[in-house]
Amino acid sequence: MADRHSDSVKEKLSLSLDEIIALNNKQQKQQQKQQKQQQQQQDSPQQQAAAAPVRRRRNNAAAAAAAASPYGNRGYGHPYQHNGMPGVGYSVKVVGLPTGLPWPRLEGMVRRSFGHCGAIIAVVPRRDGEAWIQFSDVSACRTALAEMQNAKVGGQTITVERQQQQQQQQQQQLQQQQQQQLQQQQQQQHQQEQQQQQQQQQQQQQQQQQQQQQ
């Protein structure tokens, strides 16, 4: 190694300044090329691992809950929906449920509390403290509305609402929006009428001035 180093030193001494610079650049390029090859060899296993397809498990329970939810398919006009089919499931909304509990535990509490009302098809979480209960027949909904109003589930007082109440609220909101639009239109018409009156008055004044000048 010492002989090689001395030979390279002698070789550099015998070269001109331009040749030494060119030789140094060549050596630097070779070193960079070697480093790049080593880096590619290290990165290739990681890239293969990242490119490998990741298999995702289907959450059948979540899919079933989404299908059973009244919010799952909004295209149907029927107020009650179950598994994407209108007119099969009958739903009530429960508000005021305990919060901060695991869903399986809360679902069990709801099923035990409402089980006497009728056959429960599904209990679907809506948001924290709220859930939809889908019964197999409409009489169970009526029983739940009559007997479970202001009942306690997990120490919390709940209220039971039917889906029609929500539809009525939506209709009221639509009516309010329509009334606001009508009011805006009336205001615009009134402003236009005032502008027309002002223009007519200005024209009359101009005509009077012209007559006086004549």
UniProtKB/TrEMBL annotation:
Superkingdom of the source species: Eukaryota
Keyword Protein transport attributed: no
InterPro entries assigned: Nucleotide-bd_a/b_plait_sf, RBD_domain_sf, RRM_dom
Record field: compositional bias (Low complexity): 24-53
Pfam families: RRM_1
GO molecular function: RNA binding
Name this protein carries in UniProt: RNA binding protein, putative
Record-annotated RRM domain positions: 90-165
Naturally occurring in which organism (per UniProt): Eimeria brunetti
Coiled-coil parts of chain: 160-214
Region (Disordered): 24-74
